[in-house]
Amino acid sequence: MKLNIAVLPGDGIGPEIMQQSVKVLEAVAERFQHEFRFESSPVGAAGIEETGDPLPEATLELCKKSDAVLFGAIGDPKYDNHPEAKIRPEQGLLRLRKELGLFANIRPIKAYKSLLEHSPLRPERIEAADMVIYRELTSGIYYGERSLSEDEKSATDTCTYTVEEIERIAHLAFKSAQKRRKKVTLVDKANVLETSRLWRKTVTRLAKDYPDVDLDFLFVDNAAMQLILNPRQFDLILTENMFGDILSDEASIIGGSIGLLASASVGTTYSLFEPIHGSYPQAAGKGIANPVASILSAAMLLEHFNLTKEAQAVIDAVELSIKLQISTSDIGGGHTTKSVGDFLESLVLEPGNFNNENLRYGQMTII
Ligand SMILES: NC(=O)C1=CN([C@@H]2O[C@H](COP(=O)(O)OP(=O)(O)OC[C@H]3O[C@@H](n4cnc5c(N)ncnc54)[C@H](O)[C@@H]3O)[C@@H](O)[C@H]2O)C=CC1
Ligand SMILES: CC(C)CC(=O)C(=O)O
Ligand SMILES: [Mg+2]
Questions:
Q1: 126 and 205: one domain?
Q2: What cofactor does this chain's UniProt record say it requires (predicted)?
């Protein structure tokens, strides 16, 4: 298969994790005889630096003419520490999502057996947890009107949802649940918010089209607690933009680290694949960032194009690397971003070279 992939490394650790993902995708292309072409363009603070715009016109054009987008991360303390800055890196990502119509952000979360002991959560609680969050991505409070009063003594953010915006992601969520354990949990704050009541009403009506799927509801405050108390109760969580953003960072603890959590952002035309974490500026250039979230996002890209065995090759390599602790320090390993990427690249290229008996890969002892 021929795929043109737009590569948007972004800021902070973005470029170094992206390097590993491109390397792994190149290995996939070589082993499975595909032609993947990569073209990079700046976004976020890098976009502001180069062109004054966090989403340069050329970057948007590249995304639109490509088959898929691989996104790193954006954000820089230069802006985070200056709340008065009018142009911000995050606007680049928000606008990109809107321009590409990426209304559903899909974030799978599972507990890795070999990381159970490493988790700050009780292993018996999280063992076998396996869920996916469907987060609405192009509406809600992140896209509502904002204002700051003239005397700067009050500020307003507004949250709006339309029935259509709720329906389109709810359909995707129900269809996905049909292929999983057939349970959708709608997370909202319908005891307080009008938008949440519209979500409940709309999703309840839609559920009738999916009689094989159970639908239940949780208020977001309770959901935040249930996620770490009893994560196995969840199969698919459907929720609005901001709740999904917050809950998925929390849920990443079940997996062991936010550095493992991948996502796919999809709409009707375009698709973009990105780790759920940010630009982790404290780690930039130090070689300590976990590249796996980005690499698993690349695996989601492969799945999106029905390259199932290719995606599985990447997932298998990641699982083995975690088991062998060929990993970064966030999950207890002592390896660098690049050496994890190198190992995954070799495993994807020549899985047969790995000798489980004496933990050697080709001529190389890996532990
Ligand atoms: N999608 C995106 O590009 C996002 C961008 N941001 C931006 O990123 C910047 C930093 O934001 P933070 O709130 O600090 O969130 P962050 O996700 O960048 O980092 C939070 C913490 O998560 C851990 N972490 C994140 N990525 C990791 C990785 N690959 N490997 C190991 N550990 C990792 C680190 O302990 C880090 O201190 C901000 O400018 C923010 O606006 C935040 C979230 C998403
Ligand atoms: C930085 C924001 C635009 C979004 C965010 O935190 C996310 O999508 O996870
Ligand atoms: Mg986030």
A1: yes
A2: Mg(2+); Mn(2+)
Output the CA 195–ligand 1 centroid distance in Å: 28
Q: Is beta strand 236-239 parallel, antiparallel or unpaired with respect to 130-136?
A: parallel
Q: Is residue 107 part of a domain?
A: no
Q: Is 46 near ligand 1, meaning CB less than 6 Å away?
A: no
Same domain, 149 and 236: yes
Task: Tell me the pTM.
Answer: 0.96
* 241 and 203 assigned to the same domain: yes
- Tell whether 194 and 282 lie within a shared domain: no
* Sequence-ordered alpha helix ranges (H) in 33-162: 45-51, 57-65, 77-80, 89-99, 123-126
Name residue 56's amino acid: P
Q: Going by DSSP bridges, is the β-strand pair 130-136/146-148 parallel, antiparallel, or unpaired?
A: unpaired
The one-letter amino acid code at 221 reads D
Give the range of the structural domain holding residue 90, as residue numbers without chain letter: 1-101+274-367
Assess: ipTM above 0.85: yes
Q: From the CB of 280, is ligand 1 less than 6 Å away?
A: yes
Residue 4 shares a structural domain with residue 52: yes
Burial 261-283 (b: 16+ CB within 10 A, else e): bbbbbbbeebbbbbbbbbbbbeb
Q: pLDDT digit string (tens) for 309-351?
A: 999 999 999 999 999 999 999 999 999 999 999 999 999 999 8
Question: How close is the Cα of 243 to the center of ligand 3, in Å?
Answer: 10
State if residue 43 touches ligand 2 by the CB under 6 angstroms criterion: no
Among residues 199, 225, 255, the one where a domain terminates is 255
Q: Express each pLDDT in 95-129 by its tens digit.
A: 999 999 999 999 999 999 999 987 889 999 999 99
Measured in Å, residue 102 CA sits from the centre of ligand 2 at: 13
Catalytic residues: 142, 189, 221, 245, 249
Ligand of minimum distance to the alpha carbon of 293: 1
Q: Which atom of ligand 2 is nearest to the CA of 93?
A: 3
Please work out whether the CB of residue 293 comes within 6 Å of at least one atom of ligand 1: yes
In the chain, the number of structural domains is 2
